[in-house]
From TrEMBL:
One of its GO terms (biological process) is D-glucuronate catabolic process. The keyword Oxidoreductase applies. Keywords: Oxidoreductase. This is D-arabinitol 4-dehydrogenase. Residues 268-454 form the Mannitol dehydrogenase C-terminal domain.
């Protein structure tokens, strides 16, 4: 069933009916409508069949649902989100989604298909060995690339109007990375005409998105019913904090997002860098440390003074000097991030956040180590993060972690080999994939050894 309410002039098509879109982008567009600006509305679709029950529930509720937000102090608020005016039913060929994307009224197509939905390797090139990518190269629409390629071909033939493609996933340089993947995909399909059309008729601004949105547990619907009287079949829950920074490069117009708190900037890079180093790296630090002392939840570990201090010192002593000057108030950002992590009502797990260390160290942590050395400073606080990860992986090697460790690029044999070697710390410190140029630095190896000793000392206290 397709639900079309008010005929709005401009459509924002979103692909990826997960929780995050409904707690984030849909909320901003709802706020605009609530302020009286009804020029834009959302049409919601999904590539995979896994959101069909949710899409059906939403369609029956005319696209409306309740968003519950909760502050670190436990104050809960409930808001009925009204920006989704069309719920696009899933079908095998995604025919309704393609038709929506080709309409001239559709001027922005955004997507949240998870980090893994871009199939990019360490060098950010398309993983051509992936089965879904291979199927899409033969004309399928199982991935964002096959779907967008088909949709844009259809659009080019039907009306040819330009459109903005807006990646809202947690990926560094997300617009650029998606565009690069899409172009590689089309080159493999030898779609020269479509590549030329995309170059002149689309834009892919980078965005930085932020709001911790766990998967809604059954008690969310119960609280929503209690607070609002509405038996919502599609409620969503997130933290009260929200942020969205977008490069202001829309080719076919955009909603007046600045009216509802979105930061429209020339370059998102400084915001993204602050988020990756202050939020994401501290998050991992807390999850690794918390796991090592037997804790399960992020808020418990953030509330443990010794662990919070590790994250605080890392940001204060090493990250802030690296990122200054910045358009952000980095001190305030650090404090807000630590407060958000301490929110006991979100119940985010150390297991979820501890994942993917082998990608996070080079992406989130090594740049700070390198920059400290470049300005003549010993990165003692930052070195504690890979030291924690080393001890964490030692537990993994000994089958002594309380949960399954998930890491998309884990080389299990190499890790076991490292811990079975005569000097595991030396092997770890010399890993170029983790530490880049520092892998050849004797002072860094020594610092890492001292930091690992500190972690072990802390654990025996
Ligand atoms: P979710 O599990 O609720 O939804 C995931 C969505 O992605 C579903 O619609 C699913 O069908 C789709 N999907 C998964 N793999 C896909 C693939 N390979 N190809 C196409 N579609 C695919 O997750 P969510 O909470 O909505 O989060 C989605 C993404 O949003 C995250 O991966 C992240 O990049 C971004 N994000 C989430 C949060 C958060 O706290 N949840 C915060 C910031 C950013």
């Amino acid at each position: 069933m397709s639900t079309s309410l008010n005929a709005s002039r401009a459509v924002w098509l979103h692909i990826g009916a997960g929780s995050f879109h409904r707690a984030h982008q849909a909320w901003y567009l709802h706020r605009l409508i609530a302020k009286g600006d009804t020029r834009w509305s959302v049409a919601l679709a999904n590539i995979r069949d896994d959101a069909t029950p949710l899409l059906d529930a939403l369609a029956e509720q005319n696209g409306q649902y309740v968003l519950e937000t909760v502050t670190p102090q436990g104050e809960r608020q409930y808001e009925t989100i009204t920006s989704i005016r069309k719920v696009i039913p899933w079908d095998n060929e995604l025919a309704a989604l393609m038709a929506e994307g080709a309409r001239p009224e559709t001027r922005v197509i955004s997507f949240t298909v998870t980090e893994g939905g871009y199939y990019l390797d360490n060098q950010f090139n398309l993983d051509q060995g992936n089965g879904d990518i291979q199927a899409d190269l033969l004309g399928g629409c199982r991935t964002i690339y096959g779907t967008i390629a088909q949709l844009l071909e259809y659009r080019k033939q039907l009306n040819g109007d330009p459109v903005t493609l807006l990646n809202c996933d947690n990926l560094r340089h997300n617009g650029e990375r998606f565009r690069h993947g899409l172009m590689q995909f089309l080159q493999l399909r030898q779609e020269k005409a479509l590549i030329g059309w995309i170059e002149s008729h689309t834009r892919c601004p980078n965005t930085m998105v932020d709001r911790i949105t766990p998967r809604p547990s059954p008690d969310v619907a119960q609280r929503v019913a209690q607070a609002t009287g509405f038996q919502d079949r599609a409620p969503v829950m997130g933290e009260a904090f929200i942020q969205w920074v977008i490069e202001d490069d829309f080719i076919a117009g955009r909603p007046a997002l600045e009216e509802v708190g979105v930061e429209l900037v020339e370059s998102v890079l400084q915001y993204e860098e602050a988020k990756i180093r202050i939020l994401n790296a501290s998050h991992s630090c807390i999850a690794w440390a918390g796991t090592l002392i037997g804790q399960s939840f992020i808020h418990e570990s953030t509330g443990t003074p010794a662990i919070c201090q590790l994250a605080y010192d890392y940001v204060t002593q090493d990250v802030i000097p690296s990122l200054t000057p910045s358009p952000l108030d980095l001190v305030a950002y650090r404090d807000v991030v630590l407060e958000r992590f301490s929110n006991p009502h979100i119940r985010d797990t150390n297991q979820r956040v501890a994942a993917d260390g082998f990608s996070k160290i080079p992406g989130f942590i090594t740049p700070t180590l390198q920059e400290c050395y470049q300005r003549g400073q010993v990165p003692a606080a930052t070195a504690m993060l890979p030291a924690l990860f080393f001890v964490f992986m030692q537990r993994w090697h000994q089958h002594n972690l309380p949960y399954d460790y998930q890491d998309g690029i884990l080389d299990a044999a190499a890790v076991h080999q490292m811990f079975n070697s005569a000097d595991p710390v030396a092997v770890f410190a010399a890993d170029e994939k983790l530490f880049s140029t520092l892998a050849h630095s004797a002072p860094f190896a020594q610092l890492l050894r001292q930091s690992i000793d500190k972690v072990n000392h802390w654990l025996t206290q």
